[in-house]
Amino acid sequence: MKGAYNGQYLSFPTLEDNGKGKYTKIQAKFKKYPSFYHSLEDNARLIRNGSSWDSLYYAGAWKENASTYKEAAKALEGRYATDTRYADKIIRVINIYKLDQLVDVQYKTMQSVIDTNYTALITQVNRNDGLYWSGPYMTSAQSVKRDDSASKYRGTTVRVVKEAMVSQSRWAKVLLNNREVWIDKNGLRPLNQLANTRYVNYYAKINQTMRNDGLYRSGPYNTSANTAVRDDSAKKYHGYRIRVVAETDVNGKTRWAKIMLPNQQTYWIDKNGLK
After folding, report:
1. Rounded to whole angstroms, how far apart are CA atoms 144 and 217?
2. What residues does 10 pair with on adjacent strands?
């Protein structure tokens, strides 16, 4: 569009139509935008809000007033552009690139939006989820195309701050590298939450009768990226007398113990595996 955007413009030679098909070459300033998004947004605002002297100047091109894109293009001729063949040129471009297929896109609606506050792990095994800044996929024009790929952040711990239902899928808004992004919740694995961790000092025995607990070096099971898989099996140490050096509550219901084996190696184990 002619003019300047936030003071930014580029000067180009252009042809002006006098309304009768006669062209005059002039030098004109055209708006310089920082992105395609800003360009499209500014154009849409102009078409919807009209000119400074007539808010309905482009009303003929509005969706409620033009039943087809061809009608909308013809409504702009002589108003948005002086070119007397403007509508035909626009229609030709739409047909060549099949842009009419983008008309009447039905965006999805976010429902049951809730605030959350928990940590999760980005897991992309056999997945390739998109990350979206503006909202879940296909909930707006800005979320038709992914802004980033979740596979780049596989194994990264994030904080989930919001959840929403979109069609039959649940989406999560996560804080990733100080930026809030949306991801399909199936691409996350919620991590167990620790609370009330404290140091203790007493002896117990590993009891694996009718059990097969895992031993974890970095923390209780599924509390970090390093605790998804057990580091050892408690069954190997059944009957061992060990020292308990710390305890913590996991998800407010399961108590875990940090133990020291006779060889001085420390592990976390479900406390129910001790006696």
Report:
1. 43
2. 30
Other C-beta atoms closer than 10 Å to the C-beta of 225 total: 16
Q: Which residues pair with 195 in a beta bridge?
A: 249
pLDDT on residue 172: 98
Q: Is the pTM of this model over 0.90?
A: no
Residue in the block written with tokens 């297929």:
101
- Are domains 110-190 and 194-273 of this chain identical in fold? yes
Which CATH fold topology does 9-102 show? Lysozyme (1.10.530)
| Residue 131 half-sphere exposure toward CB, CA atoms < 13 A | 21
Three-class secondary structure of residue 270 per DSSP:
strand
What is the token pair recorded at 198? 């404290």
Report residue 196 as tokens. 């009330």
- H-only helix segments in the chain: 36-49, 69-76, 86-96
Distance between CA atoms of 136 and 185, rounded to whole angstroms? 11
Please name which of 154, 213, 226 lies closest in space to residue 183, comparing C-alpha atoms: 154
- Where are the chain's structural domains? 9-102, 110-190, 194-273
Total residues belonging to the chain: 275
- Return the CATH class of domain 110-190: mainly beta
Q: What angle do CA 65, 68, 73 make, to 5 degrees?
A: 80
Query: DSSP characters for 165-199?
Result: EETTEEEEEEEETTEEEEEEGGGEEEPPPEEEEEE
pLDDT in tens, 150-208: 999 999 999 999 999 999 899 999 999 999 999 999 999 999 999 999 999 999 999 99
CATH class of 194-273: mainly beta
Tens digits of residue pLDDT in 19-69: 888 889 999 999 999 998 899 899 999 999 999 899 999 999 998 899 889
